[in-house]
Design a protein that fits this description.
By secondary structure, the protein is mainly α. The chain has a domain at 33-101. Helix content is 59%, strand content 0%. It is built from two helices and no strands. It has helices at residues 35-61, 68-101. The radius of gyration is 19 Å and the shape is elongated. The N and C termini lie far apart (52 Å).
């Protein structure tokens, strides 16, 4: 059994794509996306997972032919994505608080 290493670019979700670089005068086309763009993209992906899970639960409750296994998987993916997002937020807040306590 082959074990592949973790790719840092795919930690949140393999479906998250880096936002396209905007052409603004001196900005290069190959420039990496800003931190703000990465966070915004990740939050949008988590939101879409939550929405998809909610729609699946509603479809199941309405009696539509939906596989309960798929509904549970979507709910768990959305839950784990939200938990990861909250842990990242907590780590960022801790780092900010540590920096603000530093004396220069």
């Amino acid at each position: 059994m082959e074990i592949n290493p973790i790719n840092a670019g795919k930690i949140l979700s393999p479906g998250i794509a880096a936002p396209a670089a905007q052409s603004q005068g001196a900005v290069e086309q190959n420039a990496s996306p800003s931190f703000k763009d990465l966070v915004k993209t990740a939050l949008n992906e988590v939101n879409s997972m939550q929405t998809k899970a909610d729609q699946s639960v509603q479809a199941l409750a309405m009696g539509e032919p939906v596989d309960i296994h798929d509904v549970m998987m979507e709910m768990e993916k959305a839950s784990m994505a939200l938990q990861l997002t909250m842990q990242i937020r907590n780590q960022l807040l801790n780092a900010y608080q540590e920096i603000s306590r530093m004396q220069f």
